[in-house]
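In response to reviewer comment 3 from the previous cycle, which asked for concrete evidence that the modeling workflow produces usable outputs, we include below a single protein chain processed end to end. The sequence was submitted unchanged, and the resulting structure tokens are shown without manual editing.
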Amino acid sequence: MITKWSITIPELTGDEPRSAYVYVPDAFEEDPEARYPVLYMFDGHNVFFDEDATYGKSWGMADFTVATGLPVIIAAVECNHHPDNGRLSEYSPFTFDNPEVGHVRGLGRITMEWLVNTFKPYIDAVFPTLPDREHTFIAGSSMGGLMSLYAVTAYNHVFSRAAALSPSIWFATGRLDRLLREAPIAPDTVVYMDYGSRELPFHSNMKRQFSRVASRLLERGVLLDCRIVPGGDHNEASWERQIPFFMETLLYGVE
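The workflow returned the following structure tokens.
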């Protein structure tokens, strides 16, 4: 069952509505006492429905979870679509300047404060969740992948596991490295991180930076599942094919 409704994020876009989505396993109807882990996802409009997706192709997360019978709730929120770098701003922990996109004000911390202090408490109050850190995960791709890395490190007291697909780790590399070095990270933290082989050439030194981030996570004791996807690209169709891999990692050993 997927519930879709309109919300606002006053701290970011005032009273402008955007969509929120929650998938709850159908098994809940047969067992109303059941409670489930929660996977929070960025770019919620791309998660479930092709008709809502930016480029007409979603991840199809509900199709996969229904087909596999995975006992997990998925909660996702639409991104900011403003043409003046709205998405980049909300999904960047750091302010930066780029010759292609110009100046981007990093509002990632505000985004996460809203998600942790407003959205998550609502989800826990309304839906049959297991609200503790052990059962709270986060995932995203591209800038959403960067935010997933940010969330599981800067907000490690809330999220125990994260999946970062094709994360945008090609800018603000120094500040990202400092975050990974200094953030308090619990030893049971699990991270899935990948990058497509076809997208590695998109940014100079991408392979080196990917290796650097992976090494830093390993140095911090993170339980890392890291891979280069053969033939993988930077789009929803490619990320959809990675669902079995990152969901296996996120739910592995979870009771």
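The chain is about 35% helix and 20% strand. We consider this sufficient to address the reviewer's concern, and the full set will be provided in the supplementary archive.
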